[in-house]
Amino acid sequence: MGRTVICPGSFDPVTRGHLDIIDRATKMFDHVIVAVLCNLSKKPTFTIEERIDFITRAVQSAEIKNVEVVGFEGLLADYARERNATALVKGLRAVSDFEYEFQMALTNKKLNPELETVFLTTNQQYMFLSSSIVKQIASLGGDISGFVPECIHDDICKRLTNK
User: Fold this and answer.
1) Class of domain 4-127
2) Does the predicted TM-score (pTM) go above 0.90?
3) CB-hemisphere CA count at 13 Å for 95?
């Protein structure tokens, strides 16, 4: 069996930047689990089912292979152990992302000493992009077509513009 990794996140909604990280992870690892966090401290715009559906459709549309999309609750370190994942893959947009992600990597390593964290720097064209920015632009009627996969664009706009 090959190496399994987890790309965790809230993906509320998935962006082209997320998809780029997922695609690049599949080129380095045999099996990529995209784990959609059901974080009770966050109030997501989209349900966990919608987020899983969006990612599944986006991955299929982009013809990205060896990806499994799941929802999960609990400690990521424990989930990684259950799934025999050797690493977590996290995208970094800026130095500001690194401080938080580094803290999380050290915490996960303490909870699961076998688990590594791999940081991928984001593609330059997506450095500014976040789910929050997508939601803000869409809710104000702006064009998000360059920010999200085409196959889920209309679903996101419908929800955020109340049309």
Assistant:
1) alpha beta
2) yes
3) 0
163 is catalytic: no
Would you call 10 helix, strand, or coil by DSSP? Answer: coil
Using the structure block, give the residue that is written with the tokens 């045999």: 30
Contact 7, 35 (CB under 8 A): yes
**Per-residue model confidence as pLDDT tens digits over 88-133:** 999 999 888 899 999 999 999 999 999 999 999 999 999 999 999 9
Which residue is catalytic, options 16, 18, 24, 135? Answer: 18
Q: Cite the DSSP H helix spans in 29-149.
A: 48-61, 76-82, 95-111, 131-139
Task: Give catalytic status of residue 10 as yes or no.
Answer: no
Tokens of 30: 């045999």
Mark whether 131 is an active-site residue: yes
- Which is the catalytic residue, given 57, 83, 93, 109? 93
